[in-house]
Task: inverse folding
């Protein structure tokens, strides 16, 4: 049973009265043993009829699914090294209530698929084009000029953004025009107090497949949105890594986040993202610029920082 598409679970109260519901958590230890996950599980355990069961990484990676613990409800999500296919086999075998659809998590790993799904769902995106170097050379057309690139006939003037199609690859580059001093800002997963660095390199990468898109000038912040089902969304802003690459941290060493109130239109976007990707708990990034709110990334199961 998939929680994202089925509301029949709401009618189970009478049948399960007095029975403990076992919530299985199946993910890599870096996620299940993290501070945010421990906080979530501690709160769940406060409910008399809920018992949590964390699948150990050893069991997930080494044991056949027939030997995995039994559960009534499954929270399972992909991260680096996680055997998603195996998790799907387990869900098909035991048929627990699945909180975040597992098959859809394959799409979240490919930015091409993410943008295709967003577009199909009628969600606003930055103007973009895909350079797929996996295709035969005659099926792609790419030109680089001093202050622009042409991707399959679509022109992108600097500043523009270059994203790897692999969603696990966070090495995103923003290229600046000569009139702004040229060079590029290279974004990456946070390392200590840095999330990007300036480089004098102005030429785009020549190996690999990328999405090219217009750079959207925000007010210097990114909005992070987290859904819990289609009818609830929490949002907060952080300093954009594109600004100067220095991560703002508070006295406890946590990245500084600011509370954000979503507009009605943005709440509708959150609902659409949650439903389009079949992810009950779903984090995504929103860019606010020139009166528009565009989705530029979908992360699936995410923790509020």
Result:
């Amino acid at each position: 049973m998939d929680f994202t598409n089925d509301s029949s679970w709401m009618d189970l109260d009478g049948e399960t009265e007095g029975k403990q519901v076992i919530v299985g958590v199946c993910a890599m230890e870096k996620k299940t043993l993290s501070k945010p996950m421990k906080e979530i599980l501690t709160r769940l355990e406060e409910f008399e009829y809920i018992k949590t069961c964390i699948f150990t990484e050893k069991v997930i990676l080494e044991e056949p699914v027939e030997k995995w613990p039994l559960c009534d409800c499954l929270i399972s999500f992909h991260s680096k090294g996680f055997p998603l296919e195996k998790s799907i086999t387990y869900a098909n075998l035991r048929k627990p209530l699945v909180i975040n659809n597992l098959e859809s998590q394959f799409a979240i790993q490919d930015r091409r698929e993410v943008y295709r799904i967003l577009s199909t769902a009628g969600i606003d995106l930055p103007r973009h084009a895909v350079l797929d170097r996996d295709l035969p050379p005659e099926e792609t057309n790419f030109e680089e000029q001093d202050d622009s690139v042409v991707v399959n006939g679509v022109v992108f003037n600097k500043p523009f953004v270059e994203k790897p199609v692999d969603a696990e690859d966070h090495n995103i580059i923003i290229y600046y025009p000569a009139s702004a001093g040229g060079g590029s800002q290279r974004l990456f997963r946070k390392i200590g107090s840095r999330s990007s660095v300036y480089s004098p390199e102005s030429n785009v990468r020549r190996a690999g497949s990328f999405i090219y898109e217009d750079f959207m000038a925000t007010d210097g912040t990114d909005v992070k949105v987290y859904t819990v089902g289609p009818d609830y969304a929490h949002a907060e802003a952080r300093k954009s890594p594109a600004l100067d690459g220095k991560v703002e941290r508070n006295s406890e060493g946590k990245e500084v986040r600011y509370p954000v109130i979503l507009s009605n239109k943005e709440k509708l976007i959150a609902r659409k993202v949650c439903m389009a990707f079949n992810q009950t708990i779903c984090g995504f990034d929103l860019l606010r610029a020139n009166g528009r709110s565009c989705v530029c990334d979908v992360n699936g199961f995410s923790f509020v920082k």
